[in-house]
Write a structure and sequence with these properties.
Strand content: 25-35%
CATH topology of the domain at 16-117: Immunoglobulin-like
CATH architecture of the domain at 16-117: Sandwich
Structural class: mainly beta
Shape: elongated
CATH superfamily of the domain at 16-117: Immunoglobulins
Radius of gyration: 26 Å
Number of helices: 0
Helix content: under 10%
CATH class of the domain at 16-117: Mainly Beta
Largest sheet: 5 strands, antiparallel
Order of helices and strands: EEEEEEEE
Length: about 160
């Protein structure tokens, strides 16, 4: 996914940048446990009064495109739900966004951001219980090695 590729070729949105890309409130999070993560961004511009009139989000993984929202007429830039194909456990996704301003001019694409999915299915969890590496003999009356015997102050 290239950065700063303005597919319209107009370059009129050069004074707009998209910053603070977030997925589920975090920057480039790992272990996302929701199947439709919510994406957010902040619009910054050197012009006063700039407003978002539309956005486009694209998401890819190592195998290719997962979702392209196309141009969506909306001022929403907080908690936009992922709308692509089903996500897998451990999948790493890269995403970018661009917006159109109040005059219909597109911005450049944002810098890429990432998220990585957590373990979504019970069968994805592969672990063994952590156990001590010694055999415990419960027939002995002595305290286990991990405990300290109480101090008998009267014996002195």
């Amino acid at each position: 996914m290239s950065t700063n590729t303005n597919q319209t070729g107009s370059g009129t949105g050069d004074d707009i940048t998209l910053q603070q890309l977030r997925c589920e409130y975090k920057t480039d999070p790992l272990g996302i446990g929701v199947r439709r993560p919510r994406l957010s961004w902040v619009l910054a511009s050197t012009r006063r009064g700039v407003a978002q009139s539309a956005y486009q989000i694209r998401v890819v993984d190592e195998q290719g495109e997962l979702w392209d929202s196309g141009k969506v007429s909306s001022g929403q830039s907080i908690h936009v739900p992922y709308g692509g194909s089903a996500l897998r456990s451990g999948q790493r996704c890269t995403w970018q966004v661009r917006i159109w301003d109040e005059m219909g001019r597109p911005s450049d694409w944002s810098e890429p951001a990432h998220w990585e999915m957590g373990l979504l299915q019970v069968g994805d969890w592969q672990a063994d219980w952590i156990t001590p590496d010694w055999d415990e003999d419960l027939t002995q009356s002595q305290p286990p090695r991990c405990c300290v015997a109480p101090l008998d102050l009267k014996a002195r």
